[in-house]
Amino acid sequence: MALDLSIDFGFNGLFRDNPRPGFSPAVVGKAPRPGHRLTIFAVQQVKFCPMSVGRMVGKNLLKFRHGPERRESISPVLILVFVCLFQNSNDGNTIKIQTPRQKPVTKIQVSTVSRSAPKNDRQLRENMDFSFVTERIIALYFPENVTPQAFHQGHGQAAHLLSTKHANNYMVFNLTEPRRSARSQHARVRELNWVPGLAPPLDKLCSICKEIETWLNGDSHRVAVLHARGNRERIGVVVASFMHYSNICGTADQALDRFAMEKFLDDKIQELEQPSQRRYVDYFAGLLSGNIRINSAPLYLTHITVLGAPAFEANTEGVVCRAFIKIYEGLMPVYTSGVHRITPGTRQFTVNVAGDRRNQGLQLRGDVLVKCYHKHPNQREVIFACQFHTCTISDYTLSFTRHELDSAAYDLRFPLDGAVEFHFSASPTPRLPLPAPTPAVAVDSADDPIVRWDSYADLLAGEHDSEMDHHGECRC
């Protein structure tokens, strides 16, 4: 055990006899034995400012020496000598501070702490990240591999801390799957989750920001807790979106909060890794600011061109990839292509959407998800995916480079210069002749169950609990 000493000397108290505006002394160090003398030398002039306990303003602000009082060979701007007498008392270790011409001016309680935190506390910190985004917005994050017991204990500790400081004035906004462990510990929990692995729908981003704003504006004492488990980027998406939202819809006194949110993103999130999440935050910011004009006209997808040949299997039977595409509108499957057998040296291939629909383009509206898979004998694997919203499309050709595609951005099996182009028409009938099939790419039928399987139908139907108890158009 050791005494950790962190003292913030008050300006008015210590400089009552000889006030020197612009100077603030402080000492940070380990306390000596009771009854021992401690001589403190202030050796640097600094601007006076409120100091938080345990932090120093300026470099080499103070030097201290245990033992008999003696001068050091220094040339300070100002030298102030204080004698600290350490005594034991019934209420713990106390410090009496006095100057040569003063009686003791203050009495400070020194807490006795262990050199290392208890094992349970260390494990709890490893399993939970409790961070302030702003004074009234808190981020509560748990890693995916946290045990059920640690998850429950973490929420218990967070609930105790929040209720002690904020009573009933806090709301937990859950951004991941609903969990009984979270609801059982907190009085107010609002479920704002979306499908794992995807960016939130554009109207979902808008409603999340409005709900947070409504809660905070209801009372100046309220705080919002953003909770996520397994994917810290969900908190990043919401914080980044709310930062843009408050910049347009907030008040002038929220400027400092926006700076704090930006700092939180830099420190805790850095850059969002998933391209579609970055895109949707940019969509949201552009629509709020007016930089993106809403396109309400219907769009009909005629064909998709994939530039470059993904290599997802060895060159067996003269094939390096068996690609097929699925298109979802609002998570509902609306199109499945045949399986395209990509041969070595293929520079591009085209998925003729309108051709598969008797020369009728596929009408799309709102949030669109496109996923390209490689078909294995008994399973499938994502080659690339992308999400976009039709209200943000201002041209009839929409292009995404490799680094703008989910999965492909970090997969070297997708060509470094690869890209995907979506071609649209303003009417069901294509405005231009449809491209001819790629001669080197044969297309198999899409009757295989692996190809037909749709995986988004019931993702949000039930609740998920780590205890294995299953309870299971832009308007911004």
Automatic annotation (TrEMBL):
Pfam families: PTEN_C2 (PF10409). Residues 296-427 form the C2 tensin-type domain. This is Tensin. One of its GO terms (cellular component) is focal adhesion. The lineage of its organism: Eukaryota, Metazoa, Ecdysozoa, Arthropoda, Hexapoda. SUPFAM superfamilies: (Phosphotyrosine protein) phosphatases II, C2 domain (Calcium/lipid-binding domain, CaLB). InterPro entries: C2_domain_sf (IPR035892), Prot-tyrosine_phosphatase-like (IPR029021), Tensin_C2-dom (IPR014020), Tensin_phosphatase (IPR029023), Tensin_PTEN_phosphatase (IPR051484). Residues 119-291 form the Phosphatase tensin-type domain.
